[in-house]
Amino acid sequence: MYEDLEQIAQLKFSKEMNAIAEQTRLSVQEAKNHFAAITGAGIRSGQHEASLARLRIAGTERMGRALFDIWVDLITKRNGKISRADVDFVAHKIEQFVGAQRSNLRKVFSLERGGAVPSLIQEADNRMHALAAGTRRDLEIMAREYEVFPRACFKNRSRPFGGPHKCLEIRSQRFPGIKVVNI
User: Fold this and answer.
1) Residue 88: how many CB atoms within 10 A of its CB?
2) CA proximity to 68, closest of 113, 13, 108
3) What's the CA gap between 143 and 86, in Å, rounded?
């Protein structure tokens, strides 16, 4: 059902992932340089290590949101809506990503300073869980809105003084990058 979109999604996500990874790497390096300039020594504190870990977690969250945005955009371009089947499919993609990133973050944290700090691992797990839960919630909202207002998407399809009718506009504080779908 989604095979035709899979390759497009992978290419787009790879591009986004590379950009976000580079931004995160630069942010971590900048934070390390800033700390070294302040302390004058190469000794790192636990607080500094925690801030570096949080930069990495934030980068991973941005990647997850990018994956979410890509799939929502592709499916709504093709179908004009997010259906119940789409909710499960996209949520599963995000959950797979989150599971892999939990393991990845644990490895990265254990390599830093020779051992992972349990509170940082717990924070990473919590934030990854929140990402998966938040995306599923937003997908459910999209699907339910279409079920309740199906005609809103097709009403006024051609407007004399403007572009296409705007449909399925979802606003979310957690995911502000969700786009308006035009059909």
Assistant:
1) 13
2) 13
3) 8
Q: Which residue carries 């035009």 as its tokens?
A: 182
Nearest in space to 142 (alpha carbons), one of 67, 66, 64, 69: 69
26 CA to centre of own chain: 19
Provide the residue range defining the domain that includes 92: 3-182
Q: In angstroms, how far is CA 139 from the centroid of its own chain? A: 13
Query: Are the C-beta atoms of 118 and 91 separated by less than 8 Å?
Result: no
Residue type, 100: A
The tally of domains found in the chain comes to 1
pTM of the model: 0.76
Virtual torsion, Cα 165, 167, 170, 176, nearest 10 deg: -40
Cβ neighbour number for residue 102 with a 10 Å cutoff: 17
Distance CA 122, CA 106 (A): 10
pLDDT of residue 114: 55
HSE of 137, CA atoms in CB hemisphere, 13 A = 11
Whether the pLDDT of residue 32 is over 60: the answer is yes
Sign of the four-CA dihedral 140, 145, 150, 154 = negative
Task: Please say if the pLDDT value at position 155 is more than 70.
Answer: no
Report the candidate in 7, 22, 112 with the shortest Cα–Cα distance to residue 63: 22
CA atoms of 101 and 129, how far apart (whole Å): 11
